[in-house]
Amino acid sequence: MSTKLFGEPVQRREDPRLLTGQGRYVDDLGAGALEVAFVRSPHAHARIRDIDVSDALDVEGLVAIYTWEDLPTLLAQPLPLLIPHPALTHGRTAYPLARDVVRHVGEPVVMVVARDRYLAEDVCALIQVDYELLKPVVGVEEAAQSAQLVHEDVPDNVGAHLIQEVPSADGLDARELIETAPHTLTFRLDIERSASMPLEGRGVYARWDADDRSLRVYSSTQTSTSVRMAIAAKLGLPLPKVEVIAPDVGGGFGVKIVHPWPEEVLVPWAAMLLGHEVKWTEDRREHFVSSAHERAQVQFVRVGFDDDGRVLGLDVNILHDHGAYTPYGIIVPIITSTQLLGPYKIGAYRVEFSSIYTNTVQVTPYRGAGRPQGVFCMERTMDHIAEYLGADRTAVREINFIQPDEFPYDQGLIFQDGRPLIYDSGDYPESLRLLKELIGWDGFPALKAQAAAEGRRIGLGIGCYVEGTGVGPYEGGHVQITSDGRVHVSTGLTSQGQGHETVFAQIAAAELGVPMERVSVVTGDTRRFGYAVGTFASRAAVMSGNAIALACRKVREKALRIAAEALEADPRDLEIIDGEVRVVGSPGASIPLATVAVLSNPLRYAFDSETARATQFAGASSFDRPPVEAGEEPGLEGRDYYSPIRSTFASGMHAAIVETDSLTAEIRILRYAVVHDCGNLINPMIVEGQIHGGVAQGVGGALYERMVYDDHGQLLNASFMDFLMPYATEIPSIETAHLETPSPLNPLGIKGAGEAGVIPGSAVIASAIEDAEGIRIDKMPISPSELFDLRRAATG
Amino acid sequence: MKPPPFDYHAPRSLGEALDALAEAGEHGKVLAGGQSLIPMLNMRLAAPAHLVDINRLSELATLDVGPDGVRVGALARHAQVERSERVAAVQPLLREALRLVAHPVIRNRGTVVGSLAHADPAAELPAVLALLGGSVRLARPGVTRDVPAADFFVGPLESAVESGELAVSAFFPALLPRSGTAFREVARRHGDYALAGIAALVRLDDDLRITSATVACVSVGPVPVVVDVTAACGHRPPATADWASAAWAVQDRVDPETDIHATADYRRHLTGVLAEQALRDAAREATGA
After folding, report:
1. Contact B4 A122 (CB under 8 A)
2. Same domain, A49 and A106
3. Domains: count for chain A
4. For residue A480, with 0-12 CB atoms within 10 Å meaning exposed, 13-18 middle and 19 or more buried, which class applies?
5. Does the beta-carbon distance from A783 to B261 stay under 8 Å?
6. Parts of chain B belonging to CATH 3.30.390.50
7. Which of A204, A728, B155, B263 has the fewest CB atoms within 10 Å, i.e. is most exposed?
């Protein structure tokens, strides 16, 4: 690294724009567009008998009404099933508009296009859909035992079933080892539903250019390149005639990686058909009932261990609530099953999951993506073992840790990317030592006793996790230095506010030796970069960061070569400092990168002063060689891709001190401490920001957020009044310490940080409440009302 | 989440506003701070044909503070009342309760009278008005009437305001000498509607014995539940009063419901805990007053 930009807490350059209302989100675009609203199913399970639009036709400003019957062949198919898996024997996806049966409240049935959204909603209110009600299936255990089916052709409502076994070193399986273990415990755990709640919901705005026969689509998405491919395929357009741009995106948290959403193909289709710009902006109610949820699982755990708490065998059976459809495959339960092992080496492991259909909103990854459930399971197990043995909770964890000299460590499972689950690096004992120091673990009993003397109940909790990040298959970066000295960086993956414009500029500036102000970054715009996967799985910095670094290295190499010729020096004697190529040790001998950019292109019209000036460096042309040599390209630009052999594994440990009110049962977090290891830090301030946001979501999942469905499949709290996300007032100040164990897998030695903060939240808070109350906490989230009930049950 | 069509009226004077409301009758709705009405419109839970916006009626943005109490005009925002030192000096319970109402941005826009007219049994201000025995002034063209708090709250989201009437002001009686008040509540998040809450008022005689103790309960009935617990406390100084009996008396009188945030049992339990705490706090205030 040639400058100190890498690793510095550089202020986020996107903030002035985003914080002063200058952001450009989908709904800020297309002021003249027609607007869309949907008639969505009010029933969880019903057959559509008839759709009567006659009352709606008189509304002035109505442009079009579409139902499934209006859709062209390619659109009238069920939407694609992304990421198929052999265990997903009964994958099902929805039609863009319901064909005959609706399977959850909120499923789109009729699409209305009108002059504005107000009128479109007026029209929706006048459309009569005649439904034959079918019995809804709600609740994962109910669905698993029900004769009632969500999909007629999916027996027992089981979409997928997978068993993974990792025998012990001496070939014994988990069940045998548990049977023969000195101690065993059996218990059940429950985690309820939550969901990604980006401030900006989904949104699509499409412009059809009839002259050019091309389509431009703006979507609030986590993957513009894949949305582009889906639109081209579904609308039968040549790929080069489709552009998809993710403008400023107001948060994603996973829900916007699903693609194509029905609206992402329907809105462009309507724009083409109507020859007019068309836009749809999701409202909050739609987001609750028509996008995706996550988390809900029931876990049955059996563990065998020795006198020291060493886990000899672990057997986990998971019922995973998948909602009505499986557009994103079974990524979530696969991650739960594999990441459950955390920083531990378990004697033998058996995990089985069933992915169950219910008449509720579909389940796709939400920040953490199955890990919070897995960590909840493993960390509850560790606490229960400690309680059983009367041992310190950290001692039980420590004895099970993978040791620093055991990396790379093969867990013997297949991870979400279809590759072996092999941890690349980490230092778990050191992480725990730091955490204990940060939270004051050893001094806590005295603190607790003192609080008790004052009539207060406090408890200390802990949770550890390992997170596979930087999932493949690839990302690319493109870097161009123009004759004005500016550096233009682009990558195909998208941004949702994480600070990519800042960190990618830091990487490029550091690699190229230019001031950061000269670097601009474009993400998620298929006009600039066509091949990308997307922003999810804590992968942006690892994947695009490394791709951009590699592209910069190509450009740097070329710049040094051209400069060496101009300066009559050896490229190995050159350095780039502050945008100037210099001969090391001869401060006078230098050439600006802007000039090098001019030299790189034999076509030198004197449009700017730099080009005019550069002619002095033009070497004598050789008449027997072409101006652009074979294998060379004009210009100073480079493109490269980063494609890792497997994911890189970040890790962390959290601890919290909570106080539970002995009278009101209110739960307050007094302190929250985080030790976090994501390898080399590009920008520690941004990493801390990611942790803070993640912890806030973790607290939400632990104490506040749940999706409350009634027996009819109605979501009872589909608004921000009743779906409780924590406010700033509910989030404690977060104390962090960083450990930097570089990844050996990528050039920058980095690991992902995007999801880390949220992962152990429920485990840590449950552990702390249990410590304060002396009551088992095996169900999260927990409210004061539920704690009150647990207390009464405990005291009889 | 866009409202259905409605006619929008923007009267420039109280007379114009009353005329517009009288004409709209049962199809009219008053827009003041809009903190409850606008979400209800957007979710199409309310669909009035006429919306009468009183935000231009600066004559209603009044705060009259006298020795007897505080009269709050229909356009006085929560924040204005909360920050008034004169109001706090005459009736400190208003400030204490207002600090529990949602968040600053909502209090900058929402109005005290609007909150009373909305008559949400989970809201703080109806309990304050009920506890203090205040009243609301209602007007229609040529007619004005004062409705005491006991008659004003009719049911959940239902007040004595009739079609065509405008609530022009509310009166909160002053705190008397040797009296104290307190507001205690438990909400899921800071600023949320309370799961349970208690406004308490305690009066002492010259010998500093309790002569009167009342509470108004939030979120445990269709309207604010006012309970006189003077007898349960006993005619004793606060230090030896039987607060636990008072709390039981309150619990006995409430009829909470279970919802997605809390069970009825938990709400009843909280009501007792908070009643005892609020009564003790109010008595402490009274002792110092």
Report:
1. yes
2. yes
3. 3
4. middle
5. yes
6. 179-288
7. A728
Q: What is the ipTM of this complex?
A: 0.96
A314 and A236 assigned to the same domain: no
* Residue-level pLDDT at A5: 87
Tens-place pLDDT, residues A400-418 = 999 999 999 999 999 988 8
Query: Do A268 and A313 share a domain, yes or no?
Result: no
Task: Compare CB distances from B2 to A117, A664, A726 and report the shortest one's residue.
Answer: A117
What are the tokens at A669? 């977090």
Read off the pLDDT of residues A603-655 as tens digits, 9 standing for 90 and up.
877 777 777 776 655 555 677 888 888 889 999 999 999 999 999 999 999 99
For residue A122, the chain B residues in CB contact (below 8 A) are 4-5
Give the C-alpha separation, A587 to A495, whole Å. 40
Which pLDDT belongs to residue A1? 40
Q: Are residues A659 and A774 in the same domain?
A: yes
Give residue A617's pLDDT.
56
Q: Taking residues B181-185, report their average pLDDT.
A: 98
Measured between CA atoms, the residue of chain B closest to residue A662 is B273
Is A100 contained in some domain?
A: yes
B266 contacts in chain A (CB < 8 Å): 665, 784-785, 788-789
CATH 3.30.390.50 fits B179-288, yes or no: yes
- Tens of pLDDT, residue by residue over B232-272, are 998 899 999 999 999 999 999 999 999 999 999 999 999 99
Q: Do residues A312 and A276 both lie within one domain?
A: no
CA of A118 vs chain B CAs: smallest distance (Å): 5
Mean pLDDT score, A476-496: 97
Residues A668, A764 within the same domain: yes
Mean pLDDT over the full length of chain B: 96
**Testing the interface with B: which of A664, A705, A710 to mutate, by most B Cβ within 10 A?**
A664
Same domain flag for A121 and A39? yes
Nearest residue in chain A measured CA to CA from B193: A721
DSSP state of B203: E
The reported pTM is 0.96
Which residues on neighbouring strands pair with residue A21, listed in sequence order? none
In a domain, A354, yes or no: yes
Report the pLDDT averaged over residues A654-676. Answer: 98
> Which of the listed residues A597, A622, A642 is the one where a domain comes to its end?
A642
Chain A: give the shortest CA distance to residue B266, in Å.
6
Confidence of residue A364 (pLDDT cuts 50, 70, 90): very high
Q: In this model, does residue A470 exceed pLDDT 50?
A: yes
Range of the domain at A84: 32-134+202-281
Class of CATH domain B1-175: alpha beta
Query: Based on the domain organization, do A730 and A707 belong to the same domain?
Result: yes
Own/partner pairs, A67-76, CB within 8 angstroms, 24+ separation: A67/A97, A67/A109, A67/A110, A67/A111, A68/A95, A68/A96, A68/A97, A68/A98, A68/A99, A71/A96, A71/A97, A71/A269, A72/A269, A74/A233, A74/A234, A74/A235, A74/A236, A75/A234, A75/A235, A75/A265, A75/A266, A75/A269
Closest CA to A230 of A271, A258, A205, A270: A258
Question: How does DSSP classify residue A619?
Answer: P
Q: Which of A125, A708, A789 sits opposite B260 (nearest CB)?
A: A708
H helices of A441-487, in order, are: 444-453
Q: How far is the alpha carbon of A448 from chain B, nearest alpha carbon, in Å?
A: 24
